[in-house]
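Why do we care about 3D structure at all? Because function follows from shape, and shape follows, mostly, from sequence. That is the central idea of this module. The next example makes it concrete: a single protein chain, its amino acid sequence, and then its structure expressed as tokens.
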Amino acid sequence: MEQLEFFVVPSPCVGICTVDDKGYCQGCMRKREERFNWLQMSPAQQLHVIKLCRQRYRRKMAKQKTDAQQSMPKDDDIQQTLF
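And the structure:
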């Protein structure tokens, strides 16, 4: 049984409507179909899409963090550049 929603679920759009290499909007992390069908979705479906967007955002931030850590020079490399 679906829970009744008494409030409209606001769109997660933040106005940065560009698509990344995986096809997700860089502003809200929704897929193309999710953006285009937002108004036809039930509130439960909209909440599920928002949950997916949060997961995608966290995954993207974690990947950027690990990429940044891997690109930093090691202590040995820093010492060698001093000479």
